[in-house]
From TrEMBL:
It comes from Bradyrhizobium agreste. This is DUF2783 domain-containing protein.
Length: 72
């Protein structure tokens, strides 16, 4: 395996871990906002968590992406 391929795999794995962390953190912040009565803020954090988890699953299954885009 070339260095470039290995580096891109490592970068993808790091990005994947970062997105998982971001999703978890956004859910924690949403819970804290809920506890403080800040429902709008909690909603925004939940949307951020959803975005991060969606991006996380797209990265986890890169083979699925081209087929989804060309099926229209």
């Amino acid at each position: 395996m070339s260095n470039v391929m290995r580096d891109s795999q490592i970068m993808a794995q790091m990005k994947d871990e970062d997105l998982g962390y971001m999703s978890d953190m956004a859910l924690e912040l949403a819970q804290m906002a809920d506890d403080s009565g800040l429902t709008t803020l909690a909603y925004l954090f939940r949307m951020a968590a959803l975005e991060a988890s969606t991006a996380h699953s797209v990265l986890a299954e890169p083979d699925e992406l081209p087929r989804q885009m060309t099926s229209h």
